[in-house]
Design brief:
single chain; 256 residues; alpha/beta; 8-stranded mixed sheet; binds adenosine-5'-diphosphate; binds magnesium ion
Length: 256
């Protein structure tokens, strides 16, 4: 299973609490159903929640991996990841927040290279602040998803980022409007959002995907997109997320 063609997919945003981690986990579920080997890297280094949301007790984390790499140790990635199921592994954020500042970002590319050899899909969940670590992840990604909500500050910040990406001629990213996170706020129309950010919205997660008892799934470490009842009741959002999952790994998406 020596796959040289694994793809890094980064999940980012310009505001906190918009649904990045939930989307990253849901995408992992969908790629798993497509028979892909998936690694989720938790790069929300201070406040990451991937292991918690999947109810996985991680013994190793990304700090320990980067520390070994920086000490020129021979490493096996499998010694640092935790298993969720047969197809999904996790590289957790540091358990001890004091370790975060010791992470040397220049080793991140190495981590990505190693991960791409062993997994088909490497989903990178980030913090919303576009710090050096997040910028490296976005830069090295095959594709990125930016999650926004129906919120003026969020839309304005995304507008600035779109204009920077236009200047850089960066095209390998999708914008996902998440209406399931805060269902009461939908007063800015899709038409107005497009006009404000001067770009298309690639995918929308509808308010129907609001899961009232989401914490029950979190406590059980369940992935929403793998849950039969949710797949039945939210079938159109699941289909949309499948389309997003496929479009993020489409060939030559950044050259068009
Ligand atoms: N579809 C949804 N339905 C209900 N609650 C949601 C949904 N998506 C996200 N949430 C909740 O919103 C909060 C923020 O989501 P999260 O994915 O952690 O965002 P981020 O990673 O951007 O900070 C969490 O408490 C999460 O459980
Ligand atoms: Mg998060």
């Amino acid at each position: 299973m020596n796959n040289q063609n694994g793809k890094i997919i980064t999940i980012s945003s310009v505001k906190g609490g918009v649904g990045k981690t939930t989307l990253a986990i849901n995408l992992a579920g969908l790629y798993f159903l497509m028979k892909k080997r998936v690694l989720i890297i938790d790069l929300d280094l201070y406040a990451g929640g991937i292991a918690t949301c999947l109810n996985v007790n991680s013994k190793k984390d990304i700090y320990l991996l980067i520390d070994s790499l920086s000490n020129n140790k021979q490493i096996e990635l499998s010694d640092y990841v935790s298993n969720y199921n047969k197809g999904i592994d996790i590289l957790a954020c540091p358990k001890d927040p004091r370790d975060v500042s010791k992470i040397d970002s220049k080793f991140l590319s190495r981590v990505f290279d190693i991960a791409k050899r062993e997994y088909d899909i490497v989903l990178v969940d980030t913090n919303h602040s576009l710090d050096e670590i997040a910028l490296i992840a976005i830069d090295e990604a095959y594709n990125s998803a930016f999650v926004i909500t129906n919120d003026l500050v969020d839309i304005k910040n995304m507008k600035s980022l779109v204009s920077i990406f236009n200047d850089m001629e960066k095209k390998n990213y999708k914008i996902v409007l998440n209406n399931s996170r805060d269902t009461g706020r939908d007063y800015i129309s899709l038409f107005d959002i497009r006009n404000m950010i001067k770009r298309n919205i690639d995918f929308t997660i509808s308010r129907n995907f609001y899961i009232r008892n989401i914490d029950k799934y979190v406590i059980n470490g369940e992935i929403l997109t793998l849950n039969k009842t949710i797949r039945r009741f939210c079938s159109s959002d699941i289909k949309n997320m499948e389309k997003l999952a496929l479009s993020l790994i489409e060939e030559v998406s950044d050259n068009e």
